[in-house]
């Protein structure tokens, strides 16, 4: 797979995490997205809150990917996969794993649960020759 820019990858991740697009009959014609008049106010507020949270977490996720790439000499996609695996193995939200990794670059180490998952993922990748 060709290398993607962090922005393209982030855009894909945001798009993948959104709910399904409503049927064509409820979509607006101008932007191709959901017709705001067909959605409830609470749904729109929840969607906006989710998008704001995603936008706020993307910079720290990208910085964590950079730290992982620098420390393991891996590709951006490999760094993303490491973050995902550590998040799953430590049962910690990905954005929190990313925050801990970035903070550990200049401060205290990540919590024991995240450190253990990082060690586990790194050793598994080393055994596979990645």
Description:
This protein is mainly alpha-helical and 130 residues long. The chain is built from five helices and no strands. Helix 2 (41-72) crosses helix 4 (94-104) and helix 3 (76-90) crosses helix 5 (112-127). The protein is elongated. It starts with 5 loop residues before the first helix and ends with a helix. Residues 1-7 and 13-29 have low confidence and may be disordered.
Overview in brief:
The protein is an all-alpha fold. Helix 2 crosses helix 3, helix 2 packs across helix 4 and helix 3 packs across helix 5.
Pick out the low-confidence regions. 1-7, 13-29
What series of H and E elements makes up the topology?
HHHHH
Mean of pLDDT? 78
Distance between the termini: 16 Å
Helices, by number, come to 5
Globally, the shape reads elongated
Structural class of the helices, strands and pairings?
mainly alpha
In angstroms, what is the radius of gyration?
Answer: 18 Å
Helix content: 55-70%
Number of strands: 0
